[in-house]
Amino acid sequence: MGGLLEKWYAGPIDPANGIYKPADVAGHWREVGEHSRMPIDGSLMINNPVHSSYPPSRVFQVLQQQFGNEKANEYLRRAREALFAFNQNISKDDVMIKLLNDMGLEGESIVSAANQPAMRKLLTDDFALARSLGARGFPSIIMVNAKNRGVRIVGGQSFEKYVDGLKQVLNSVTPRAKQPAPLSEILQKEKLLFSKEIEVLYDVEQANIQKFINKELAQVDFETNKLLSEFYYILAK
Asked: Against a cut of 0.85, is the pTM above it?
């Protein structure tokens, strides 16, 4: 739900958060990045603003249809990295095509399919479904069980709030946390991981993260880089 904007126009977009034009987003993004320790630059919205979030959203839906959720979610991850961390305008065809090509897909044909009327309608239908489910705030997490009974959690909430939601849809069964795969496997899959992600996933203090990574990736050829005072790790080229 968050950030879905068909186009910029004259007048207030989100006056409650002081958003009237693209450049107003930059400071907000930087603030979120500093709070979350996920490196978000934001200057793109001053120099080369995203004109609409609809084009990459339609590409996501094409991937869902043609390749399934796993590939669509991989694209979503790559698009977020490109936009927030590396200042790439993901509303532009050439940027989307490169992201898709780098995933081993036929970028031009997928972007072309995303621009067809059928995909434009599918995105509109998706918005209608979200409204029907009451997903109007950001984020909106909706959990539904096999009996079609669900829980809707809106806004930033504590971890315990989500656990309570799971208990409700699981009929009070206490959910068990799944142990994460080894870091080497996750880095092989994701290609890039930020320090904060690794700290949270493996419950490692920031002061101990480099020691943990060196141990876990002892057999992996990887690179350490820094962006906006935060470290991130990629497979060596």
From this structure: yes
